[in-house]
Design brief:
Strand content: 35-45%
Number of domains: 1
Number of strands: 10
Structural class: mainly beta
Distance between the termini: 38 Å
Number of helices: 1
Mean pLDDT: 87
Radius of gyration: 18 Å
Helix content: 10-25%
Order of helices and strands: HEEEEEEEEEE
Shape: elongated
Length: about 120
């Protein structure tokens, strides 16, 4: 039997964005959610510069965004449809990157294809 409530909950969770607008050094950046490295046991998140002063647009800090492609993001929580662009569009490089280790499980032997494996 299909559980419609479970399916709808999963769809709602899939649409949630971990990307948000943050203030770093007086400028607005798009902060991505944590991603796992394929080649080494680390997680990382990147901060993409918009070139916009956070002093003038402080009301955007903390807003969730959804990547639309080519350096363009849709801003959630706005009363009208709003977009924010990265400073060099789709050619923008991250301004900052944070990393953290992925803890090795007790029985794990090596890191392969983005996860710890037992053999």
């Amino acid at each position: 039997m299909i559980n419609a409530k479970k399916i709808m909950k999963r769809l709602d969770e899939a649409q949630l964005s971990e990307d948000k607008i943050v203030d770093r050094n007086g400028k607005l950046y798009i902060e991505t959610g944590w991603e796992t490295s394929y080649n080494e046991p680390i997680e990382y998140k990147s901060f993409w510069p918009t070139g916009i002063s956070s002093k003038e647009y402080n009301f955007l800090v903390g807003k969730e965004v959804k990547h639309l492609g080519s350096g363009s993001y849709s801003i959630f929580g706005s009363s009208s449809p709003s977009k924010i662009e990265l400073e060099n569009g789709g050619q923008t490089k991250p301004g900052f990157t944070e990393t953290r280790p992925v803890k090795k499980p007790k029985n794990a032997v090596s890191w392969r294809s983005g996860k710890w494996v037992n053999s």
